[in-house]
């Protein structure tokens, strides 16, 4: 009996610690942020207005193509945050157009084209993950001033976690939208 009680208590403590360190959408937790592995984690507080403007980093790039690509990437991210599959397609089309004739061979444009045939928001979020991976070397090589925030959500894709880029330190999670709007942390600042 004592062993069963001890096992039950141990399991309860483990489950409790998992709940506290994840970014679950708890209605009882009105705290705006918590700590996870030494990094700041954000969570949406109930009733908060997440449409208000945040301070955005003004970024300049060494060439106009990358600047335009980043602008449309951010539009895709914002549309995913808002779970607007139509706006995702529109922004992706503009991203493809940035590359013109090179769109047939450019990794970013090829990944952006995949959005054009998909209306399911979850499939679009999958494509966004792939697009983010293609953007990384381009952004790091072409930035000339300003900051880009590489952000991470540990809960994305069944706990595998994934990244995205933002022009603001404020977390707006494209992988969950309103479900876990502020779930994530800044992993790196690219300057």
UniProtKB/TrEMBL annotation:
Basic and acidic residues compositional bias, start-end = 25-52
Residue ranges of every copy of the DUF3347 domain listed in the record? 70-141
State what protein this is by name: DUF3347 domain-containing protein
Stretches for region Disordered: 24-52
One Pfam match? DUF3347
Lineage, uppermost ranks: Bacteria, Pseudomonadati, Bacteroidota, Flavobacteriia, Flavobacteriales
